[in-house]
Amino acid sequence: MTHAVKLAGWGTLVGLWLACGQTPPYDASLGLLSPPTSVCLPMTCESQGLDCGYAIDGCGGTLHCGTCDDGLTCGGGGEPNVCAAPP
Fold this sequence. Notes:
Blueprint: H1 3-19, E1 26-27, E2 32-33, E3 54-56, E4 62-64, E5 73-74, E6 83-84
Antiparallel strand pairs: 1-2, 3-4, 5-6
């Protein structure tokens, strides 16, 4: 791969990244724009206020939030994934 092709590839990536509204991080040690990184911090059942059933974690995973105590049902109060007495 030639140097010009490598630079064109980086230019395309940076252009697409900027078009998506990202501010490129600056790497002062190299004096270059560092490549874009993506970090997903998964949510928990607790962080979403969920007691029971299944939910998404926001990063492509699935959470099992547990079951309800006797006399309560999951979503019984009309709010999904929250334990409550059935109507």
